[in-house]
Design a protein that fits this description.
Number of strands: 31
Bound molecules: 2-acetamido-2-deoxy-beta-D-glucopyranose
Distance between the termini: 28 Å
Helix content: under 10%
Low-confidence stretches: 1-16
Shape: elongated
CATH superfamily of the largest domain: Glycosyl hydrolase domain, family 43
CATH class of the largest domain: Mainly Beta
Mean pLDDT: 95
CATH architecture of the largest domain: 5 Propeller
CATH topology of the largest domain: Tachylectin-2, Chain A
Structural class: mainly beta
Length: 447
């Protein structure tokens, strides 16, 4: 009996190997969608806490700052809400609370949350501060204010590794034109002194990592809910001039259709980029783009990974490999057409999917729910969607971000229940809708 029990345990832990699948619909341990956008992460002992914006109501107005816990950064359990609306204040349900970030103040044995606090029209441009004795709180709201009398919209916090654990507010100010860094007081309740300014930089969505004594700042430019090429900057002290902006990855991808939210340092000296893929029309389905952030070239560079995992003890990551199937090798129907361009894998893709057109690709499965990464191009400025049907079953909908006017190919994951052996996967988009063009799909066995 005992032997069987342990054998089963081993099987289960193998099956639950924790993989990160950027852009997938992430669910918590109760099976509900993870609602923690504009993330802030803090580690306490061996537990990770993820605080973020709950957008389940599909509104940009304040509903809650959620709090999730994990021991591996992949499997997340929802806890009590960390902050909820208070009528008649700057954090009412008709206000905006974004980008919550938590610091631990050792001197006061207190958790301090900073967030972007605003009115619905983003006209107030303030920061809010709330405190708690435990990482998930609930937090007690202290108030909202304009730091040093100036505007603050997208913000983050950074805690230095000096003996005093000096903390800083990183924020978009002056109508998002200037990016500022100000030092906090010893309680982390207020800022006392501006220590840096990237004048005219038009940055938002900041994050910072200190690595070998160098301060690396990450931020996007301003383009509303649509992504743009996120940048990195470095400086030898937090108050010295930062290097000129440089791309985190190839510009055309718009940071793999994401915007920076937080950057988690790993034991290896590399990091995890934690971005948001905002869906402005349906905020609740905005997804999380967490990717390897490496300094292998001496500067920070973001690499795409369909399916990957991190060993948190060493910081080493593993990018899964799958089996590739070219879309043009599939069986086409209706209006679907083969497109040729050297940007496509093998030089070809399938276009005009939808309005009756479809392509059916035969793949090998292992008899499990498997990740399938669909490499798509959507030249529209808005999202498209595709129906995906396995072995002729009920189609599910795959959302497909805009990949812009140039021919940019983006990988979008979907989890499909494949039987052992041959399966057909049919991509279409009904009778009155066009899906994105499909270059190839990659089938993974990691679950
Ligand atoms: C938000 O949108 C999602 C996806 O369309 C939907 O499932 C959910 O019911 C919506 N939530 C509300 C409160 O309307
Ligand atoms: C923050 O400090 C400034 C002075 O530097 C002060 O005017 C302001 O009232 C303080 N704000 C809060 C919320 O304590
Ligand atoms: C799919 O896209 C079409 C066209 O943009 C849109 O009208 C439709 O609502 C979308 N369907 C889903 C399920 O997102």
């Amino acid at each position: 009996m005992r032997t069987t029990f342990y054998a089963l345990l081993t099987l289960c832990s193998t099956a639950l190997a924790a993989v990160i699948v950027p852009g997938a619909a992430w669910t918590d341990t109760s099976g509900n969608s993870i609602q923690a956008h504009g993330a802030g992460i803090i580690q306490v002992g061996s537990t990770y806490y993820w605080l973020g914006e709950d957008k389940a109501k599909n509104s940009t107005l304040f509903s809650a700052v959620s709090c999730y816990t994990s021991s591996d950064l992949v499997s997340w359990t929802r806890q009590n809400n960390a902050l909820t609306p208070i009528a008649g204040t700057m954090i009412s349900s008709s206000n905006v609370v974004e980008r919550p970030k938590v610091l631990y103040n050792k001197a006061n044995a207190e958790y301090v949350m900073w967030f972007h606090s605003d009115t619905e029209d983003y006209g107030a441009a303030m920061v809010g501060v709330a405190v708690a004795k435990t990482p998930c709180g609930p937090y007690t709201y202290k108030g909202s204010f304009a730091p040093l009398g100036a505007q603050s919209r997208d913000e983050s916090v950074f805690q230095d590794d000096d003996a005093d654990q000096t903390a800083y507010l990183l924020y978009a100010s002056d109508n998002n034109a200037d990016f500022k860094i100000s030092k906090m007081d010893t309680n982390y309740y207020n800022v006392t002194q501006q220590v840096n300014e990237l004048a005219g930089a038009t940055l938002e969505a900041p994050g910072m990592i200190k690595r070998d004594g160098v301060y690396w700042l990450f931020a996007s430019h301003t383009s509303g809910w649509s992504p743009n090429p996120n940048k990195y900057f470095s400086a030898s002290s937090i108050s010295s001039t930062f290097s000129a902006q440089a791309d985190l990855t190839a510009e055309a991808t718009n940071t793999f259709y994401s915007q920076n939210a937080y950057d988690w340092p790993l034991a290896s000296g590399n990091a995890i980029y934690m971005g948001d893929r905002w869906n402005a029309n349906v905020p609740s389905i905005s997804s999380y783009i967490w990717l390897p952030l490496s300094w292998a070239t001496g500067v920070s560079q973001l690499t795409w990974a369909d399916v990957w995992s991190v060993d948190l003890a060493t910081g080493a990551w593993t990018i899964a490999t799958g089996t590739t199937y070219q879309a043009e090798a599939g069986v086409r129907s209706g209006s679907s057409t083969i497109l040729s361009n050297s940007a496509y894998s093998n030089g070809e893709a399938v276009g005009y999917l939808g309005n009756g057109g479809s392509v059916t690709i035969t793949v090998q499965g292992i008899g499990a729910e498997q990740w399938v990464s669909c490499y798509i191009a959507n030249g529209d400025s808005t999202w498209r969607n595709s129906t995906v049907s396995v072995n002729g079953g009920t189609p599910i909908v795959m959302q497909q971000p805009s990949t812009g006017g140039g021919l940019v190919i983006l990988s979008v994951p979907i989890k499909l229940n494949l039987k052992s052996g041959s399966n057909t996967i049919t991509f279409g988009a009904g009778q009155s809708n066009y899906a994105a063009d499909l270059d190839k799909i990659v089938v993974y066995t990691a679950t």
